[in-house]
Amino acid sequence: MDYREGAEQKTPLKKVWMGMIPIELQLAAADAIELLASAVLPEPFQTFYMLAPRVGYLPFISSKIRERWLDPMLALSGPRIPNEQSIKEADMWFEYKNQALKWHYPVGLLYDLLVGDVHRGDGELPWSLTLHVRKLPTAKIIAQPSTTLMRDMFMAVIKEADFIRNGSTKRVMDLTKSDQMQFLDGLETHSYEKYFSIHSIIVPPTPTQSSFAADHRALALSASPPPSLSAGSSKPRGTQQPKAIPVRFYMQTSGTQDDGGSKDGGSAAAGTANAAGNGGSGSATTSTAATNSSAGGGMLGAAKQADITQYIVSQVPIPLYRDEGSGSSADMTTVADAFKLCYEITDQSNDAFVGNCVCISHGVCVPWESPIAWLAENFFYADCFLHLVVISI
Amino acid sequence: MSEVVTASLATAEAVAAAAASTQPKKVVVRFRSIGNAPILKKSVYKISSAQRFQALIVFLRKELSYKATEPLFVYVNSAFSPAPDETVYNLVRCFGLENQLTINYATTPAWG
């Protein structure tokens, strides 16, 4: 990474984009036995380490893992089944403490949701995950985690965000084929330049951006509250102002939510949404029964250990200002306001959660009084959503 | 979210309870076919807002008697395909009109 002085180098936007998580991978023991001719993993292949971009997605790192770890391992040890020379990326999935990771969530979001003590700056590093290459648990996660499907699903989320922002998906639909490819390549290869040259077409800079520019430095990834905007900074009402900001809250609760995973169990084949159509081969994946055995283990630690089903996900379009007619900085929607909108807290005086909970994004505690507009310019994930994790302290 | 979720957050217990109670239990879903996709006999349904989008796809496939291997593309507001694990309630709040969600479906990709 480049640490030269330079205005652009220091923006929170770039820091967020460059955020990485060191990952430590073990191959699931049962899968290794099925996969390899030898009983034990050959010497240099027991553990695999890599850096994963926070804004990236698991299917995009699968190919690297396969090329640099699994394929050489297989070549050295020899496959158990003679004609299996390579592992399909669509069979690869990741597990953390008995939970299958939803591969269509950004990596950084998964980390913030599932790893404890992130808000104390003391999250597990490296992040220790188990890699599986067999028995994809299609009742819990979407089938066929391939780069192709990930790209398709990513474009769908971008359209969803565009719809919230502008009331239509026109900006995304108007992208040329080559622009779209560059955008996706930028995401897949974690190229800041490639990604943001197209991002600026989909999300043009708003008038608010310039007024926040001065605060960038002070706010950069610190937990300090944003300096209250001076009265003089009232900004021109530009035409580029988005209608609303795409925000998704993940609120942790102690109870286990009745997740769609169990309720819709058995619908695995249809679970890929449009995937069955896109997949070409569309072949139904292997049996899912085996994964149920791990469910019990997951429940044991439920009180302490964060579980993906403990989160209530809520999403509503968040306006930039509390009062639509207003344009004054004092009326800017804050994170606390957005939280109330999402969870329908109509009692305006009910602000106790501000003291009892923290809001995490990109591994950083976001002050409740931060303007959503500022976050929307700097703290979005690659899918253009603000993903905000709320946990009790 | 049909049952009240007990939250560990000191105030979020109230939040979760309030959220569960204010949620409309049922939302109206309107299915529209695109291209040569078959039309449903009945196109408007009331479904539980706690359902995932996935359940809606499963339901639609059943109504159309479509097998899992037959291609079906499902969209919201003629615009995009949500992830299967998004809740219908969130979709209605973001993209619905008066508690009504429009779902378009096709046998070939319609909107990218």
TrEMBL record, chain A:
Membrane-topology descriptor: Peripheral membrane protein
Domain of life where this protein originates: Eukaryota
Domain called Autophagy protein ATG5 alpha-helical bundle region: residue spans: 150-204
UniProt record, GO biological process: autophagy of mitochondrion; cellular response to nitrogen starvation; piecemeal microautophagy of the nucleus
Compartments where found: Preautophagosomal structure membrane
One MF term in the entry's GO annotations: Atg8-family ligase activity
Entry keywords, A to Z: Autophagy, Isopeptide bond, Membrane, Transport, Ubl conjugation
Bias type Low complexity, positions: 223-234, 253-276
Domain Autophagy protein ATG5 UblA: 16-133
Keyword Transport recorded: yes
Region annotated Disordered, chain positions: 223-291
Subunit structure: Conjugated with ATG12.
Family indicated by similarity: Belongs to the ATG5 family.
Protein's name in the database: Autophagy protein 5
Gene transcribed to yield this protein: ATG5
TrEMBL record, chain B:
GO biological process, any: protein transport
Transmembrane stretches, start-end: none
Main location: membrane
Keyword Aminoacyl-tRNA synthetase: no
Location(s), subcellular: Preautophagosomal structure membrane
Any matching Pfam family: APG12
Membrane topology label: Peripheral membrane protein
Entry keyword set: Autophagy, Isopeptide bond, Membrane, Protein transport, Transport, Ubl conjugation pathway
GO molecular function: Atg8-family ligase activity
InterPro entries for the chain: Atg12, Ubiquitin-like_domsf
One Gene Ontology CC term in the entry: phagophore assembly site membrane
Subunit organization: Forms a conjugate with ATG5.
Family statement: Belongs to the ATG12 family.
Function as written in the Swiss-Prot or TrEMBL entry: Ubiquitin-like protein involved in cytoplasm to vacuole transport (Cvt), autophagy vesicles formation, mitophagy, and nucleophagy.
Protein name in UniProt: Ubiquitin-like protein ATG12
Source organism (scientific name): Coemansia thaxteri
Gene from which this protein is expressed: atg12
